[in-house]
Design brief:
Elements: H1 9-30, H2 38-52, H3 55-68, H4 70-79, H5 87-106, H6 126-135, H7 145-157, H8 159-173, H9 190-210, H10 216-231, H11 244-277
Length: 278
Amino acid sequence: MNNNVSFPFRFFLITFIWSWILWTPLVLGSLKIIPLSGNLISILIFPAIVIGAFGPLAGALFGLHLEGGKGSIRKYLQSFLDFNLGWKVYLIPILIFGGSTFIAWFFPELFGEERLSMLLPSIWVYIPCLLFMIFLGGGQEELGWRGYALPILEDKFGIWLANIVLGFIWAFWHLPLWFIKGTNQTYMNFGGFILLMVGYSFILSWTKKVSGNKPFSGLYVHGLANSFISIMPTLTIQKNMPQIRFWIWVTLTLFIGILITVLRKKNSITNLSIMNNL
């Protein structure tokens, strides 16, 4: 922890401005504050959300430009081309997110809940779905969150507080999506989503560390987590539903994230003690 490190206000400011400018017209149209038809919102929602999700990258590039100019930006972007994350980072998140998503999706069936069908037309399109999620379906957010902001926050606050802060900010960055007609977020409890983002933050922080601080780990793990929802949905697309699967998913994710961080800190303390005794 280093209290002399500056909080990355400019990064968060540009991130929110970029994304919310793109999302706000859809919010205003959905709330009928401006004249946007439902059909037009349906057409605009996909490109607006995808492009808006590059807000964290815009924030990172802005910060890097002020700090070091074009050379630092080029070096930063090139760092995402290192795909040598190690087998643990490629395999363990499959077990973590595949297992937790499966439990949340399947467990309610044991108590009479109907099965939610896979969102993909066929399991054979899973790999294209995964690649889409990594690069355009959420993974692109990690060009800023874990690539730029996380190292600064962890240096300033330490692992625990940094990921709680980032998880909360990450969740609130998504807030406009709760007011756009047709998004999955309109069926989610926002408080539960905050817990999910904090859990994700802990897990993504750990996988980045295990990868040797390779920033592409964030894109891969984030995209992987999102891709499992396509084959094992955890959200019932109906209003005023208890969303049992969603709450199981949120709870498991947060618990796993906390457990991983506890073990990570315990291991760090043990290694430090060993070094001091040498």
